[in-house]
Design a protein that fits this description.
The radius of gyration is 22 Å and the shape is globular. It has 259 residues and is mainly α. The longest helix is centred in the C-terminal third of the chain and has 35 residues. The protein contains twelve helices and no strands.
Length: 259
C-alpha cells in the first residue's frame, strides 16, 4: 500500500536528484532552441512580406503627422540584419506551440496523473495568450507609442533606422506576449503550493504597484497613457490569475485527497 501511495505522488514530492532536473531542463532548452530555429527558417522565406506588416505602424504614425518617407539604414549590413531579426521574432511566435510543449514536458513529472491529462488545454491557453499578447502589442500598444513619440518630436525631421525600429518592435511584442502568460505561470505556482489565491488577494495593492513599475520600465515612452496601455492588461490578467490560482489550489487539494 505504501508503494502505491508513493508512486501516485508528484515527482517533486519524492527525492528526485537535482542533477536530473538540470539535465532535463537542458534537454528541453535545446529542443526549444531547435524548434525556434525551425520557425526562423520557415519565416525567413517570407521575411520581406513580414517586414511589410511590421513597418505599417510607423508608416501610419508618420502619415498621421503629415510626414512622408520611411525607415532608413546607416550600414550596408543593416537590411540583412533586419530580415534576420524579423524572421527570428516571428519564428518565435510560429514555434511557440512546440516551445510550450517542451515546458509542459519539463513540469509534467511534478504533476498528479489526473493533472497530466490537461496538456491540450495548457497548450491552447498558453499559445493563445502568447499570440494574443503579441497581437495586442501590434494593434494597440505599438501604434499608440509611435504616434506619441512622432508627435512629440514633430518639429524635427525623423530619420528612424531599421535597426532601432526592429529592436523596439521586438521588445514590445515579445514583452507583451510573455506578460500575457501570467495566468499560466500562476497556475503552476499554485499547483506547487508556492502561492495561493488568498495570498494574491491580500497582496493586491503591492501587486498593482509592481505592475505599474514594470509597465513604466517596459514602455518606450514616458507618458502616462502608454504606461496604462501596458498596465491595464496586466491588471486584468492578475485578476484572472487569482481565479486560476483558486481553481489550481482546489484541484490540488482534491488530488491529494484521492491519494
Amino acid at each position: 500500500m505504501a508503494n502505491v501511495v508513493t508512486s501516485a505522488l508528484p515527482v517533486y514530492e519524492r527525492a528526485m536528484p537535482f542533477l536530473a532536473h538540470l539535465k532535463e531542463l537542458r534537454r528541453r532548452i535545446i529542443f526549444s532552441i531547435l524548434g525556434i530555429l525551425v520557425g526562423f527558417l520557415l519565416c525567413w522565406s517570407f521575411a520581406d512580406r513580414l517586414f511589410g506588416l511590421m513597418q505599417q505602424p510607423i508608416i501610419q504614425a508618420l502619415r498621421n503627422h503629415g510626414i512622408g518617407g520611411g525607415l532608413v539604414y546607416l550600414n550596408p549590413t543593416d537590411p540583412f540584419n533586419l530580415y534576420l531579426g524579423v524572421a527570428l521574432v516571428l519564428g518565435l511566435f510560429a514555434a511557440s506551440p512546440f516551445v510550450f510543449y517542451q515546458f509542459w514536458l519539463f513540469v509534467a513529472p511534478g504533476l498528479y496523473r489526473t493533472e497530466k491529462r490537461y496538456v491540450l488545454p495548457f497548450l491552447v491557453s498558453a499559445v493563445g495568450l502568447f499570440l494574443a499578447g503579441g497581437l495586442f502589442g501590434y494593434k494597440m500598444v505599438y501604434p499608440a507609442s509611435l504616434d506619441f513619440l512622432i508627435g512629440y518630436g514633430e518639429r524635427f525631421q525623423p530619420m528612424i533606422t531599421i535597426g532601432e525600429y526592429t529592436k523596439l518592435f521586438a521588445t514590445i511584442i515579445i514583452s507583451l506576449g510573455l506578460m500575457f502568460e501570467l495566468p499560466i505561470l500562476v497556475f503552476f505556482l499554485a499547483l506547487m503550493r508556492v502561492i495561493t489565491a488568498a495570498w494574491m488577494w491580500r497582496n493586491l495593492r503591492y501587486s498593482v504597484l509592481v505592475i505599474f513599475i514594470v509597465a513604466a520600465i517596459i514602455t518606450p515612452t514616458a507618458d502616462v497613457l502608454n504606461m496604462c496601455l501596458f498596465a491595464a492588461p496586466m491588471m486584468a490578467l492578475y485578476g484572472i490569475s487569482i481565479g486560476v490560482a483558486w481553481l489550481a489550489g482546489s484541484r490540488r487539494e482534491r488530488g491529494a485527497d484521492t491519494v
